[in-house]
Design brief:
mainly alpha, globular, 3-stranded antiparallel β-sheet, 7 strands, single chain, two-stranded antiparallel sheet, binds flavin-adenine dinucleotide
């Protein structure tokens, strides 16, 4: 039972997000979501890095090592594979958004490029649902008027601008550029892991003060000019 395995009750679900060594330094991260009777387990990877093959890694092998990790393996153990697929997430942002309206045509959801990867979350479903509803409302109005020209359908863009869809796409227009900073997927995960390792490990020797430990690890990874550059870039998020 999924509930027992994840310690859930009633209608609760669980979502796990993983970053760091799961992508071996590449842009992206792993996820494990509970559904009602199934689990969704996967990786989101930067297609540019996969295609350039600089890391010599392919998506299926990364997936194998991800599902083999103890923190994932224990949740999927004994499970049956129901579906295995790959899908492109359009994360290029508002800068590459296609024309949304033409005579007799409205573009919504992923096809319109309405997806955002903010590192912490991948967003696309709410944009797809909202833009789908607005496209349908616009289409109904146009059909009632017996006029599906681009001019009549342009009300769709107005609806999108007045909702959260286009404003959010605009607010996070630079997300892609910020997340392209490789240190986010290498240096910072290593820093956080080593920091917690140092703080929580108690061995048989005398223990250094917590501040001194934290400063030593921070000095190794993040007390440098590159972190300042990353922080400056992060202001665009
Ligand atoms: C691995 C992964 C993780 C994600 N995680 C999240 C998340 O945590 N949160 C979130 O909000 N979003 C997430 N997304 C993004 C989200 O799934 C999409 O943004 C959303 O599903 C887009 O909905 P859509 O209806 O536009 O497109 P889709 O869901 O892709 O639906 C398009 C449908 O059209 C069908 N189709 C295609 N061509 C044809 C054709 N010629 N004829 C008939 N049918 C056709 C397809 O089979 C598909 O069913 C994730 C995406 C991926 C790939």
């Amino acid at each position: 039972m999924i509930e027992d395995r994840f310690g859930l009750e009633n209608d609760e679900g669980a979502a796990g997000l993983y970053m760091g060594s799961v992508t071996q330094g590449m842009f992206g991260g792993g996820f494990l979501y509970t559904n009602r009777d199934t689990l969704s387990v996967g990786l989101v990877l930067g297609i540019h890095q996969l295609a350039s093959n600089d890391h010599g890694l392919d998506a299926p092998s990364l997936m194998e090592s991800f599902t083999g990790r103890p923190e994932i393996r224990r949740f999927i153990k004994g499970g049956e594979l129901k579906e295995y697929s790959a899908h492109i997430i359009s994360e290029a942002g508002i800068g590459t958004m296609p024309k949304l309206v033409a005579g007799g045509m409205l573009i919504a959801g992923d096809a319109a490029g309405f997806a955002l990867n903010l590192g912490l979350t991948v967003r696309g479903m709410e944009f797809a649902i909202a833009s789908g509803v607005m496209a349908a409302e616009t289409a109904i109005e146009a059909l009632n008027q017996n006029d599906t020209s681009a001019t009549t359908l342009s009300g769709y863009e107005k609806r999108l601008r007045e909702s959260f869809v286009l404003p959010d796409m605009e607010t996070f227009r630079n997300a892609r550029e910020v997340l392209d900073r490789q240190r986010l997927f290498t240096v910072y995960p290593r820093f956080i892991c080593e920091l917690f390792d140092e703080l929580f490990t108690i061995d048989d020797g005398p223990k250094e003060g917590l501040y001194a430990s934290a400063k030593r690890v921070a000095k190794k990874y993040v007390l440098n000019i590159d972190t300042i550059k990353d922080l400056l870039a992060a202001r665009k998020l």
